[in-house]
Amino acid sequence: MTPADWIDTAAVPPRALPDTVEAALAYLSEALGHAVYAHWTLARIKRRYGSLAEAKAAQPVVLKLLLAHDGAVEYWERGRLRTVSANQAPSPQTVLARLLHTHRRRFRSGASSGKEAAVPAAAQATGPAAPSSWLATHGPAELAWLARAGRFAQPHAAANTLGAADDAQALALFLRERAGRSPHTLRAYGAELRRLMRWCGARQLGPLSDLKRQQLLAYRHALQHGEGHTTGARPPRSEATRTRALAVVASCYRYWYDTGYLHANPAAGLSAGSRARRLRPDAAAPAGAAGRVRRLARRAGA
């Protein structure tokens, strides 16, 4: 296996390691927060520190080894950084393999992740409220529309820790985890997702994993201006209901992104654009302080 066959499941979204051993070791160093492998020569240490005096102050053990050997290697092993001559050091491939084994809960091979992804995700979506039953209420056309993966779906199946192959499976898993314990919550979430689907259908957009940020912002604008009637669904009447509708959509996309089903989140901040409440300068001000509050407000607006 190559380094790119290993997945960093702690990254958001999960991502494959770089292709080469050197680049993978550099990635691990940044991800783990400490050095993991460095091969030093006199030429390299001079380039790094400018002079032998600076090198001696910064890397005394390395410089001492370089005075007697052609190379020195720093490598991470058993919780600490070790320094030995180059001819005694393990190979970069060995160091990488050991690190991946030590952190096997975080870094997983594509082979094992691929097996998990091969399990039909929709079949796993069972629970008290049976989210998969929500999908069963859709007609053949809607199910065919959902049973696709759009431009933002994770093409690297091993990095898709959700194990979903299309939007239908990804929706079932989202509903199971976020709304599966309550039939009422499941109905509410399902209604908001269906509203978005109808809006997409009226404009021949989709599937959900194919929507661009501009299209989701257009959907938010439609909700805020009462344009839901063009989709065949009644638009939300109150601001609180509109905010909840956007929150459900944003939550779904964030869940997909965090679990690796999407490699980008076009709905980031979608629910943060609701109308802000304006506070009068003298609101809740103590007696005698209203004038000072107004002056401060005028200065802030200047």
Task: Describe what this molecule looks like in 3D.
It is a single chain. With 302 residues, the chain is mainly alpha-helical. It has two domains: 3-111, no CATH class; 120-273, no CATH class. Helices cover 49% and strands 8% of the residues. The chain is built from 14 helices and six strands. A three-stranded antiparallel sheet has the order 2-1-6. It is elongated, with a radius of gyration of 27 Å. Mean pLDDT is 81; it is low at 113-130 and 275-285.
Describe the oligomeric state of these chains in a short phrase.
single chain
Rounded to the nearest angstrom, the radius of gyration is: 27 Å
Tally of discrete structural domains: 2
Number of strands: 6
Mean pLDDT: 81
Structural class: mainly alpha
Shape: elongated
Write out the strand line-up for the largest beta sheet, numbering strands in chain order.
2-1-6
- Please report the number of helical segments: 14
Element-by-element helix/strand order: EEHEHHHEEHEHHHHHHHHH
Strand proportion: 5-15%
N-to-C CA distance: 62 Å
Low-confidence stretches: 113-130, 275-285
Characterize the main sheet: 3 strands, antiparallel
Helix content: 40-55%
Annotation keywords:
mainly alpha; 6 strands; 14 helices; 302 residues; 49% helix; 8% strand
